[in-house]
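Handout, section 3.2

Students often ask what a structure token actually looks like in practice. Rather than define it abstractly, here is a full record for Myelin and lymphocyte protein. The first block is the sequence as you would receive it.
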Amino acid sequence: MSSPGSTTSLPSGLSVLTTFPDVLFIPEIIFGGLVWILVASSKVPFPIVQGWVMFVSVFCFVMSIILLCLYICSVHGGSSFWVTLDAICQSTAALFYLSAAVLEAYSTYAFRITELGLIYRENIAAVVFAFLATLVYVIHKVFSLLRWKSS
């Protein structure tokens, strides 16, 4: 077990916004919100794909905001359970976003010829931000798992 003052515990208060990997909540929320907006405003030929991408972006957006608020309010109280919860949440979000980004990219690629220019550009932007969100969640996941392992 680590000592209460070690760097493997979760930060509390506004130090969440200055410690790595917890500072990654900010780009996660920004990129996730952009994916949510772009997918909601674009036409996707497969409704099930749009539904999954919307679910993933909304779920991860809300999860990141809730975790960020709970960490800022110091709800975790230094418990090791919260380190495990953080690792599970980040791993789930990374896996979900990877699947959503791949599906969005495939549907955009498959219907690139039939789509209008503006709609195609919106779908391309959604794909780019989905992969950026995936990258941020994967980085956060790796460092959360390292923190979990050392706690």
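Discussion prompt for tutorial groups: The CA atoms of residues 129 and 140 lie 16 Å apart. How would you have guessed this from the sequence alone?
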